[in-house]
Fold:
Amino acid sequence: MDLREYIAEIKSVGELRELDGADWNLEIGTLTELVGEKDGPSLLFDNIKDYPQGYRVLAMCMNNAKQINKALGFPADQPTLDLLKAFKDKLAQVKPLPPEEVSSGPVLENIQEGAAVDLLKFPTPWWHEGDGGRYLGTGCMLIMRDPVGQWVNVGTYRLQLHDRDTLGSHISPGHHGRLIRENYWQQGKSCPVVAVFGVHPLTWLTSMLAYPWGTPELDIAGGLAGSPIKVIKGQYTDLPIPFDAEIAIEGECPPPEMESRPEGPFGEWPGYYASGERMNPVIKVKRVLHRNDPIILGVPPLKPPASGVASHFIRSASVWQDLEHMGIPGIKGVWHLRGGSSRYFTVVSIEQRYAGHAKQVATASMSSPEGAYHGRFTIVVDDDIDPTNEGDVLWAVATRCDPASDIDILRDCWSTPLDPTISPEKRQAGNFTNSRAIINACRPFHWKDQYPRVNRASDELRSQTLKKWPELFSSL
Structure:
């Protein structure tokens, strides 16, 4: 499936609003923010100011559970935790399928090369008032091949539109895309790059998953889809390009000492302008490919909790899968609380099996491939707590956590320049580390059977009562 088929599917279930005449300068971004705060539908903008009809922007492509179910091919109305478990199981069972190279596809309907390249033809939004420019790359895929291992990596990183043939590129330290670029730069070479700005969400979401070094994400995308992702070979980069992408560019990222430009600031997912404006590498665009009436996939970071559920959902399933791969028993659910964006509050629900089980889960979670990067609080709760229910989680912390004995602090952990708590002195020194808190909000294992009972009607009694009084709850 391509992005257009997905748009048709969410439209069929009332999860799309089509808006004409919006301004690319802040209005699209503000409308996206306001709808995101309500977990509303996806927004498809057309007839955008200063641009021809048909040059569109799709914002918030996976903004709620119903849309995620559609993207993944699951039943439309699954509860969040059931959906999360189904996706986690799908990730665990996926059999990677390498891409299938084809000679043609919709992405080749329009081609510009050399002096004809003009990125300004696309209605790139100015997303937030404090941004330093327009950002074409939010819901994007950046494709690179490691020159050492010769494997193809796909990641989502922000890309600022500088001019007709230049994009600004910011990748935080430690991410695979940054390490691959550095491998080229150490050889004095520019890094070949493909950037894609619109594919089916199932393909795009694999670029957000934290797979181990050397894992080709396009193979994972094919496995999740059940058939290989069809790609054409880039003439300039020799890199794979999804054949049904809306917009794709081929280019190169020269060593920063050869060319860098001021990039940012950009309102990022923690909800702040923490990294400011700085000199960052660029991508010099050599070739632009796009479909007729192209659609930019816009997934701007928004101040939590307006950031939508997609990133919370994807990273929660990934941490859950990581914990099971480690062989840790009793994992009943994982969720990143919306108020903490997609990383700051990781909640893990467990069935306690032995003394120390809760702390083992907490330390494993924050050391997993997905959980290691820029976390803040890891909360472990008992299996009677739904980790997706923020009220339940806060109640567990309030009533089962003794601060003096159940909170631990770890220091010098992997963070990012986007972290708003990093002091100016640490930034100046390039010390992008932070601390983490482990909160054990489980009943103490050695006397959990003597812990006071919960004041709540039993599931059996609740079910009986609901059957007797259905009309009372039909509109709630």
In short: DSSP finds 14 helices and 22 strands in the chain. The chain has two domains: 102-298, 310-459. The longest helix spans residues 310-325. Residues 29 and 127 are 4 Å apart (CA to CA).
